[in-house]
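Entry:
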Amino acid sequence: MTQFINIMELTPVASNHTELKTELRHNLLGKSQPQMIIAQQVNDPDVMGQMGTYLKNFVETGQVWALLVGLVLGFVFRGIIGR
């Protein structure tokens, strides 16, 4: 895409239009720079199983109780402040 923009910026208005069309067609139809593809390797595709494991750990370590206490205290303080 940057090649397309560079060609459009550098091309004068009174240039040969057939030459511009040919150059644009070559750049847009795959004769451009190779693109880098970023990928991620997945070791365990069982997403629901992982979520279950994390939830079980969340409950076993008592973090769920800390969450509930924090929510209750937050609503109490909100009620006291009156907003």
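Residues 46 and 52 are 10 Å apart (CA to CA).
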